[in-house]
UniProtKB/TrEMBL annotation:
Sequence intervals crossing the membrane: none
A Pfam family hit: Lipocalin_2
Classification via Gene3D superfamilies: 2.40.128.20
Organism this protein belongs to: Oikopleura dioica (Tunicate)
Name of the featured protein: Oidioi.mRNA.OKI2018_I69.PAR.g11657.t1.cds
SUPFAM superfamilies xrefs: Lipocalins
Family according to the record: Belongs to the calycin superfamily. Lipocalin family.
Domain Lipocalin/cytosolic fatty-acid binding span(s) in chain numbering: 30-141
Coiled coil (UniProt feature): none
Length: 152
């Protein structure tokens, strides 16, 4: 089973004052084709788009071209509305793209929310693969420097 340990892959939640981002290690021989498949979330830092009671978080990656893959993120969340309560599967589709062939384990993940124009998308890598063996684990994080503080 493939397991991903996600350290705020998007919408960072850990604020560090007076600290710069850690530089991810270069995986020069990172093989995007071997990264395809279904990955299950094992642990993560808190993120705004996923609550503590979410279950079965995962992502499925598939081919587009030599530097781009499809992303299908999903999780099961509890709900409660006028009709009752239960569990609901939610998912969102997007893509991930290697921005620098010299640093292939840093990708830009982006989702089409129906209003995001490609020209306005931030072109900084936001999905850093820190380590992986392609079959059992992947450690992923994101960090952004804002001068006097960083978001991880």
């Amino acid at each position: 089973m493939k397991t991903a340990i996600l350290f705020s892959a998007a919408n960072a939640q850990l604020i560090s004052f007076g600290k710069s981002c850690y530089s991810p290690p270069l995986i020069a021989d990172f093989d995007l084709d071997r990264y395809y498949g279904k990955w299950w979330e094992n642990a993560r830092t808190p993120v705004s788009f996923s609550g503590d009671d979410d279950k079965c978080g995962g992502a499925e990656y598939g081919p587009v071209d030599a530097s781009t893959i499809t992303v299908n993120n999903s999780h099961i969340i509890p709900y409660s509305d006028n009709s009752g309560s239960g569990l609901e599967l939610q998912s969102i589709l997007g893509n991930a793209k290697i921005l620098d062939a010299n640093f292939p384990n840093k990708l830009l993940v982006y989702f089409d929310y129906g209003y995001q124009l490609i020209e306005s998308r931030d072109e900084r890598a936001n999905y850093w693969i820190m380590d992986t063996n392609y079959d059992e684990y992947s450690i992923v994080m994101n960090c952004e420097d804002f001068g006097s503080f960083s978001l991880e």
